[in-house]
Amino acid sequence: MSFAEVLDQTAATEYLQKSVLGHVPQALLFCGPSGVGKKKTALEFAKALNCLDPQARQNGDACGLCAHCTAIENGTYPDVVVADFLYQARLELKKDPGDKGYEEELEKELAKQQRIKVDTIRDITAKSQQKSAVNGWKVFIVDEAQSMQAEAANALLKFIEEPPQKTVWILLTDKKAAMLKTILSRCQPLQFAPLPVQTIEQLLPQVNPEVAEPALAARYAQGSLTRALRAAEALEILQSAPQGPAWPAAAAAALPRTMAAARQSAQAVLDVVMLALHRAWTQAENEKDRRQYQQALKKLENYKTAVVRNVSPALTVETALMGLDKLHVQI
Fold first, then answer.
1. Can you tell me the distance from the alpha carbon of 5 to that of 37, in angstroms, rounded to the nearest whole number?
2. What average pLDDT does the segment 291-306 reach?
3. Hey, how many other C-beta atoms are within 10 angstroms of the C-beta on 262?
4. Among 22, 144, 220, 298, which one is most buried in terms of CB atoms within 10 A?
5. Same domain, residue pair 187 and 203
6. How far apart are CA 97 and CA 114, in angstroms?
7. What does each C-alpha distance from 74 to 67, 82, 90 come to in angstroms?
């Protein structure tokens, strides 16, 4: 059963199963933290709409095994399009995947992506007007929908308001408040909840078998599998550095070399340290310790802002960690 693979989002999956059996909204807005299964659920919904197994379809679900389900899973089904930063990077690169050095150039292009642009929206809206390749449901998924440029959002409006028959738009966002009200008013919202720690611990080895301590990373996940993966990377950086006076410098030196990757890792390291500090603050036995932890947390907030503003990630991490030696914080 396809929807059974979506963990701890029962309210969302039950609604979608009923939609498959009854009325399919023309536009859906999946809201909730990153890394809780929004994109996976959208793809499972696309499978349920296009599955070739009559028995599965009778339950509003998908078999997960037929040619259509397999193609959707592999990203080769012509009528299901996921417009995310990778899709946009491929459009902007304008090269054949078989070209020499394509993957390296694609990785550099992907690192530049910050907003969903109007040309990307025009590309997928044009595809939405084409005839279905297999006479099934066309499903268009826009990830990071809150990042759409105003021109891109406006270009999307009329297409989600009056799509062709058997066409559904699914917008994914972790920042609903940042989206245009005109877009929100045309979409059926569906809320996704943070994942329990136990679920994240269960999923981590499946997503990345190299995570050394899934249980520890899950503690720092804040309900998000994406955050758990970042926390696992941050924990490896913090724990692999030799303890002692040189620990801050060693941890900073372990950050990735490219600026975009180093900035992301630095933010993950600071997030982990802030959560450890917050836990220490809640467990502090006297007011003096609590004030020290509060002051340290405020400083770390400033360091996180500095990373975003292009201050050296390595220098920021080293400086931030230097102030922790007297606080006895357990990571």
1. 10
2. 88
3. 19
4. 220
5. no
6. 22
7. 10, 12, 17
Q: What is the pLDDT of residues 111-156, one digit of tens each?
A: 888 899 999 999 999 999 999 888 899 999 999 999 998 999 999 9
Contact 43/15 with Cβ under 8 angstroms? no
- Asked, for residue 260, whether it belongs to a domain, the answer is yes
Same domain, 175 and 62: yes
Q: How many domains, in total, are found in the chain?
A: 2
pLDDT in tens, 146-172: 999 899 999 999 899 888 899 999 999
Crossing angle of helices 197-207 and 225-240, rounded to 10°: 70
Question: Domain range spanning residue 86?
Answer: 3-191
The residue with tokens 């997960």 is: 64
Residues 237 and 88 in one domain: no
Tell me the β-bridge partners of 173: 31
Last residue of a domain, one of 156, 175, 191: 191
Tell me the chain's radius of gyration from C-alpha atoms: 22
Contacts of 43 (CB under 8 A, 6+ apart): 72, 73, 80, 82, 141
Question: Residue 280: CB partners within 8 Å, gap ≥ 6?
Answer: 289, 293, 327, 329, 330
Tokens of 118: 């109007």
Joined together, the tokens standing for residue 271 give 């997030």
| CA-closest candidate to residue 20, choices 148, 190, 192, 137 | 137
What are the φ and ψ backbone dihedral angles of 255, each rounded to 5 degrees? -65, 155
